[in-house]
Amino acid sequence: MRAAVRYLVLLFGSLALVAWGASALFNLQAMEWAQRDVAARARLAASAADPSLRQAAGRGERQLLNNMVRDERLMGAAICSPSGRSEIASDGFPASLGCRSLPEEALRVGEEGWDRTIAGPSGATHLTVLPISHEVSQPPRMLLLVHDMSYVDRRADTTRRYTFLAFAVVGLLGAAAASVVARLSWLSWTAQLRMVLLAPFKAARVVIPRRFQPLLSDVRDLVSTLAVEEARTESGWTPERLKQVLQRQLGGEGILVVANREPYIHERDGAGGLRVVHPASGLVTALEPVMRACSGTWIAHGSGDADFEVVDGHDHVRVPPERPIYDLRRLRLTPEEEQGYYYGFSNEGLWPLCHIADARPSFRSTDWERYQQVNRRFADAVAEEAAVPDPIVLVQDYHFAMLPRYLRERLPRATILTFWHIPWPHAERLVVCPWARELLGGLLGSSIVGFHTQAHCNNFMEAADRLLESRLDRERQSVIQAGRETLVRPYPISIDWPSRWADATAPAEQCRAEVRRELGLPADALLGVGVDRLDYTKGIEERLLAVERLLERQPRLHGRFWFAQIAAPSRAVIEAYRSLAERVEALADRINARFGREGWRPIILARRHHEPPAIFRMYRAADLCYVSSLDDGMNLVAKEFVAARDDLHGVLVLSQFTGAARELTEALVVNPYDLDAAAAALLAALDMPLEEQEDRMRSMRTLVSELNVYRWAGKMLLDATRTRRKERLASRLSPVAEPR
Ligand code: G6P
Known about the structure:
This protein is of the alpha/beta class. 6-O-phosphono-alpha-D-glucopyranose (G6P) binds near residues 261, 282, 283 and 397.
């Protein structure tokens, strides 16, 4: 509306200016013509009357002059003496314009005469002075004719009025025509724009006109910014909300996930059939619910002995098996590849390098070769799976530090978000790896690199600064290398909420009774649990030692307290893991031998794989859960325990060296190396009044329910889609105009 008013003001303003200019020009011209006209008339009248004038002047007769001024435009005529005196004048000659008012030059003028137009209060007046024929010996008398030029001004007024009127009519007609044309083209433009904006929601493919492509990108960028803001400010991430956000952002395009571990492992069950195993992996725990919400393809190592019996011709299998939603693409690795890439470089090199757990990393060049080779193979697989030239790829964990770079070579426009699930060490520690620079360079092929905590982000940026030819942008939190920017962001991982395993588990009272019965414990037994892969970073030995210290200090717990350690076998090919398993076994035996008696062996060690339902029963049956990691990016066991305890009972004792300790501050946070403090925390947990347990658990449950895995994924994917949109905008690449 305002724009229309502005347009009209502008239109009429300019028309008025043009009209004014045109009429001024015309009036100037008209005045010139009139002057020429009256000058000619004056000369005509003077030459006609000349002989008589001479006599009239001599006799002082004014009649002749009165006859001359009958011409309606002549106001007066006078005869001036050579000295400038008025000898005779017609009746009513204007006194102010008499012979005395003439300049000297007018009285001395020759045959050509003298003309001047002067402005008066009632309009312009034109004076003409012409010599009257005379004796050669005498100076001539002059005939002064005064012409009324006010008619020129009147005409000018009329002309001006008509010119303005004409331009006003033209302006009105122009504005009306312009508004009709604008209305019509607006209707067609908005129709086209609507078609463009709704294109992603239409089944039929719509061709987007070129001129709309930049606009479309801008609009999408804006919508995405708003979505990001909305996502940032709102809490309450759910699978549905993640699905909606991604539908809006990706328009149905699936995401590609690369993770070494697969979410479902097909194994032979020993009785001629197959079984599906859910691996013990924090990464899988977090990512699997996200894939259920997002759909897409998960590319992983097919590690089960029956994995390739269930895949199609492209090594795909639809999962989850009970209700397929997304694709699992399995990669076959040779035993040499698995040895060098997975056991060797990943788990004997990078895993101990990144965790402060007193384990020495081993770096062998043969493992490094295999690691790169397998990373290339996975990059090839991603490129095969990509449906667009700029897919969003989520690369997971330390198995794939080189993949982002290799993938960038194959798909230069991909948006690669790499999430590092384990800690990132200080630069001093990182340089222990002979290929530290290569690892950093590989990761910087990513658009975004994510860690659980800001501290790990800082370590990564510091390392890039010290080891590479790169530039840090601390404000944007990014590393720029070879003209490419990689954002470095903290995304604290979490679990699904509500937890599907918790929902499928019997109520706490029932679990409590059943588990005690199955373990052969009295109904009122106090029970602590630990749930881990058998890994030296988990502090399982320190945990059992803390239990031993507790029993040393609290004889009242003898015969009343049991600690059940679920230890899933892990990476057992590696010596450090085999010897850990032996040490843990021996430690449990020693403690049991030291304190045990008829009907009471305080440590229950279950060294086998447990499926999630069994683990959730254990969580619900326990009085406390002790997570004692020596170094852990996040630790999802802590969050799963909280998710399981909808009865609000049970106490979490949590190592200060986990990422989770930063969020779950209502846990009893301990240093697992400090056995006295850990034993005291275990005792405090067992003695904690129910009311306090409820308060703490309620608060932790609120936090985990808010900071759930859908939020983790949502924030990452929104950042990724935003980055992609910016890159598309930069290259003016239209997503819908792309060939699919
Ligand atoms: C950690 C790693 C994951 C890994 C999991 C289990 O959580 O960050 O990438 O999947 O351990 O280890 P595994 O070697 O059995 O996959």
